[in-house]
Amino acid sequence: MSIVFSFMLGFFAPIYGGIFYGIDRVLKAKMQRRKGPPVLQPFYDMLKLFSKTKFIVNAPHTIWMIFYFLSLWAVVFMIFFGGNLLYIIFGHLLATVFFIISGYSVNSIFSQLGSNRKLLSVVAYEPILIVNAICIYLVFGTFEISEILAAPNNFNSLVFTFLSLLFVVPTVLKLSPFDASKAHQEIVGGIEVEFGGVFYELVYAAKFLEMIFVYSFIFILASNDYIFGTFLVVFSFFAVALVDNSTARIKIDSLLKALYMYGFGLGIVSIFWILLCCI
In the predicted model, is pLDDT for residue 71 greater than 90? Predict the structure, then answer.
């Protein structure tokens, strides 16, 4: 992949990420037998937000959110430039920390509760990402995405890694049943509650980038078989949307138990499966 093409993919990530987000909303509407919004509705929403009065109530709150968006965008650039998986995971962790700090920087109890829950969910899913990165290293002998995508397909060794990552996707994207950190009915959106107007666009656009981040891990499991990698992403996309539509939110303590027991557990099983396949 050329440097120019990689740069273009990273630069326009918020655009096609928004299209994916729009498709997700349409898909969920169809599952509920609703007409739903148009695919480009996320961009209509952003244009509406851009027309709002630019008003800052709490400067640190806004600054931390800017750091979150820019660092998350940098992580997406690292992905398209074929960077190191571990650097990408820790870069995403840093971006999420900025997001959590933004929630703590205001006096809203809903925002601070959202930060507490987000911090707990990060403690749960980040180890799963690291364990699965180790699984990928055991199969391909490298953490570099560019080298992984050039290697022959060895998905049979990564089946449990794929299953483990399916628990991470809804947690990162804050979808049911693992959306306790947002919980509109309980804490009115959590960290997002204090943002408004043009600055909420950063929160909105960050959701697009989060989708690209988490589904990239699914895609690289197919290595050089891009068609199969696309199939895995589409399958995961539909499966996550179906679960989001058909399940209720679980409490944060249940979220932690589920991720450690099933997500992390499947990651450990994947390590032993890979070692068994290599013998």
Answer: yes
